[in-house]
Structures are given as structure tokens and as C-alpha cells.
Hints:
Elements: E1 13-18, E2 21-27, E3 51-55, E4 69-76, E5 79-86, H1 89-97
Parallel strand pairs: 2-3
Antiparallel strand pairs: 1-2, 4-5
Amino acid sequence: MGERVKSPTYSLIESYRFDGRAAHHLDLYRIADPAELEYLGLDALAEPGGLVLVEWPERGAGALPPPDWRLDLVHAGSGRRARLTALSPAARQAVERV
């Protein structure tokens, strides 16, 4: 990727390309109503092989498709602990292949 990743807190969406694939980082903290997502053009973000990461997905409940994965970050001492959970059949198959 080679570029600095910035928070989409104010822009709502930051998009990147890496290895010829698209990655979109959404921060929905400032979304008050899931209907607002209609104006963001989320349909255009869903491309094969792409990645869409969503912070505060509960703010988009009903307007976002079901997730394949859930990533939880929790404070652990002076660092953080990450837990990745496969939620969809495709994600579970990916885990089985590893």
C-alpha cells in the first residue's frame, strides 16, 4: 500500500488500493440514522476481492449487508488484543483453509 492510513472520522470513508484490490475504511460514528448511508454510495464499494472495514457498524444497522468477519480490539495492559471471528459461511471456509 505504501501510503499513510488516516482515520475517516470526518470524511466517513477513506479508500485505498493495494495489490490491485480496493480497501475502504468507513467510520460511522457520526451517522445519526442508517438512512444517511444511502448518500454514501456504499453499493459502489462492493467489488469482488475488495475489503470494506466498518467502525461503529451498529450505526448502519439495516442499511449494511451482513458482515463476513468481526474484529474486536480490547485494551490488554499497555497494548491491545485482537480477536477475529468468522461470521459467514465464506469466512468460516477461509478459516478452515488456513
